Structure formats: C-alpha cells, structure tokens
Q: What sequence folds into this?
C-alpha cells in the first residue's frame, strides 16, 4: 500500500479493500480504467489472459460460433467482450451470436436457432426452457421444438 491508500494515513481517503478490489475487477472484466496504485502493464496482462480464458469457455458452449471465426476466434471474442462484464459462457455466446446476426456462418446460425427454439432468452435474464412449442428457421431447414425435444426438417436439395 502507498501513502494515501488508508484512511489512517496522512491525506488518506476512506477507501476499503473491497472498494479497491471492485475497481480492479471492473478493470479486468469490463474495461474500466486501471485503478491508481496498480501496475498497468500487469493488469493488462491479466485482463488479456482472462479474455482468452473466457473465449475458451464460450467456444465450449458455442462450438459452431467459435469455429465460424477460425483462428481469429480469440481476437474477435476479445474485441466484442473487452467492455462487457461476463454473463457466463452460455449468455456471452448467445449475445455475441445475436449481435453478429445475419453475418453468422450457416452452422453457427443453426446453433443459435436451436438454442432459441429450446430456450427463452431476453438478453437480460438467464435463459430458461421454453414451455410452448417453437419453430425457428435454420440454414436449409426448420427447427421445431415440442415438449423440450428438437427436431430438424431439412429442405429437399435440388
């Protein structure tokens, strides 16, 4: 700790350890400025490592989405996630896929359509299973969910 970091020190502000930790977490997870007293280079190194780890977790939950970006997945995810606090790998992937939208590769678009047929997600609350039947258009077919089971009807190729 440096002078001024503790309320009992001359010129010190009443900042608790919890406040300083919250500032650091904000920097690491959502692009907030580096808090005073921390080494910016080390904080950036940790932030990049956390983004890479987060990208790996999202890739496990959304394999087609990650594959659609190929070798650029980590960089593409990091650009998207740099200022967004994590919502968990399922929601992070869902939000990214929705943002990419029409630009999704066909297998990633079908991955998104399948999730949206099986679950309800409003972008704010955790996804939950659908209670009613749902139909979503996939690339080359239609995805139908009834009673929690997903079926895909393919268009005849011709």
A:
């Amino acid at each position: 700790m440096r002078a001024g970091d503790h309320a009992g020190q001359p010129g010190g502000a009443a900042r608790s350890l919890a406040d300083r930790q919250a500032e650091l977490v904000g920097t690491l997870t959502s692009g907030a400025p580096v808090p005073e007293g921390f080494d910016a280079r080390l904080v950036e190194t940790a932030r990049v490592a956390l983004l890479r780890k987060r990208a790996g977790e999202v890739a496990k939950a959304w394999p087609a989405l990650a594959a659609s970006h190929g070798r650029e997945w980590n960089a593409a995810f990091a650009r998207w996630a740099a200022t967004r606090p994590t919502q968990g790998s399922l929601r992070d992937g869902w939000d990214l896929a929705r943002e990419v939208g029409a630009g999704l590769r066909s297998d990633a678009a079908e991955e998104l359509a399948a999730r949206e047929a099986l679950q309800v997600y409003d972008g704010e609350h955790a996804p939950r299973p659908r209670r009613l039947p749902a139909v979503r258009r996939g690339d080359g077919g239609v995805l139908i969910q009834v009673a929690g089971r997903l079926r895909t009807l393919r268009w005849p190729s011709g």
Q: What stands out?
A: The radius of gyration is 21 Å.
